Each structure stands twice: as structure tokens, then as C-alpha cells.
Amino acid sequence: MKLNTINLTLQGKGGVGKSFITSILAQYLKDYKGLDISGADTDSVNKSFAGFKALNVIPIDIMENDTISQAKFDSIFELMINDEKNTFVIDNGASTFIPILKYIKDNGVIEIFDETKKEVFIHTVIVGGQSQNDTLQNLITLFELIKNSNNVKLVIWLNEFQGKITDAEKVFKAVANKTSNFIIVENKNSDAFTTDLEKLTKNRLTLNEALISDDFNLMAKQRLKRVFNDIYAQLDQIYDVAQSE
Q: How confident is the model at residue 220, as a pLDDT?
């Protein structure tokens, strides 16, 4: 298992399940793999990730007068770069997408990641339906940001809960050389699965909390385990492989 990775969730389109997938990633690293993680939520509008109390996520307000607070973001990146023990999971809001990209460009953050040999994964979400084109365009923007990096790669989450993702092969091919892997969040097309997941996320509960909760019956717990185990198996293809590279 690869240790001490930096994981940034970035997507400029709101309402696509970004904080949901970040919470699953954090649970995979912390609860499933037993790593020491440091989680932060920089979303200035909806601090959904920070709502998962069991994950000990620190909410950080990085915006001041519609611009990034340089000092606060400096501290975050210096901590990630200098810490050689923890694995970092940082959820960034849609409203901070452009300011954060500007900060990364202006301060040569990608070059610093390469110089320090930090292994960095930028996680982004693609959805089907009306928001698909917007999420794909933001994926291209992220690719342009890291295309010359040796150490930074994309993890593309395909969230099928807003519809099947179609006609995206051209974009995926264009970013292929910087893509670590795809994670499919499958829509089981079942009211029971959907209801269980909505209940879980609405209450900001982790899988482990749900499994010991009386609010979920036996079959609901089984359905949630299936969803998480499917995603965890896909994440293994990224993080366990990374150890041997």
C-alpha cells in the first residue's frame, strides 16, 4: 500500500457528488487500509466533507473577498509537502476551483510536487446528463495543468447517478497519459440502493458507522457494503499498484 500520497478533489461543477466521492476515498484510506490521514475541506459554500465527524476533517476557509488567502493556502501546501507520514485528502469546492488552479499555476505547485517526488492524485468527477459537458471541460482544464508533470496523475470518478456517461471517449483518450485510473460509481437502478446511499450521505455517516447503527437494517447494510466494496476494489488498482512502481 502506497503511503504519504496527496489527494486533491477538484471539479468546478457543483452538485456532482464531489464530496461524496472524497468521503469514500477517505474511508478507503483510513478505515479500509488503516492509514493515518489528514483531511481538510476548503469548500467555502458547503463543507459537506467536514460533516463526516468520524473522519476528523478540518474545515478551512481559504477565501477572503473572493480570492484565495495566500497565507492559508501556503500553510496547507507546505504541510503536505513536508509531512512524510500522513496521507492527505483535501476536498475543494466548486466555487474555489478557478482560484485554486490559479494559485497552483502562479506558485509553481506542480513543479514543487515533482521536485520533492511527492505522489499526487487529483480526483475529479464526471457525470452523465446535463452536467456532463461541464465536468468534461473541467477535466481538460486539469489535464492542461498537470500534463508536463511526472508525479501528478488524474483519478477520474464516473458518477452514474445523474445518468449514463456517453460520447466521452475522445476526451478520455486525450487525457489518457495522465490518467491513473477510472473509478465507476455505478447506479444500481434500485430504489433501495439509492435510498440507503442518500440516507448515509444526508446523515454524514461512514460505512463503519452505518454497519453498527440501528437505523440501517440487515439488508440495507449489505447493500451499502456492496457499493463500497466495489469502489474499494477499484481503488486498490491505484494505490496497491503504486507501491510496486
A: 97
Strands 67-68 and 63-64: antiparallel
**Mean pLDDT, rounded, for 133-156:** 98
**How many CA atoms are closer than 13 Å to the CA of 209, on its beta-carbon side?**
12
Do 129 and 163 contact (CB within 8 A), yes or no? yes
Model confidence at 245, pLDDT cuts 50, 70, 90, reads: very low
- Nearest Cα to Cα of residue 80 among 3, 5, 180, 155: 5
Strand 67-68 to 6-9 pairing: unpaired
Number of neighbours of residue 149 by Cβ within 10 angstroms:
15
From CA 213, how far away is CA 216, in angstroms rounded? 6
pLDDT at 70: 82
SS3 content of the chain, % helix, strand, coil (to 5): 50, 20, 30
Distance CA 110, CA 107 (A): 9
Cα separation of 7 and 130, whole Å?
27
- In one-letter notation, the amino acid at residue 168 is A
Q: Is 6 helix (H, G, I), strand (E, B) or coil?
A: strand
DSSP-assigned beta bridge partners for residue 40: 58, 90
Give the separation between CA 176 and CA 172, rounded to whole angstroms.
6
Average pLDDT, the chain: 93
DSSP of 26-67: HHIIIIIS---EEEEE--SS--TGGG-GGGTEEE---EETTE
Beta carbons within 10 angstroms of residue 214's beta carbon: 5
| pLDDT classification of 63: cutoffs 50, 70, 90 | confident
- Chain-centre distance of CA 133, in angstroms? 19
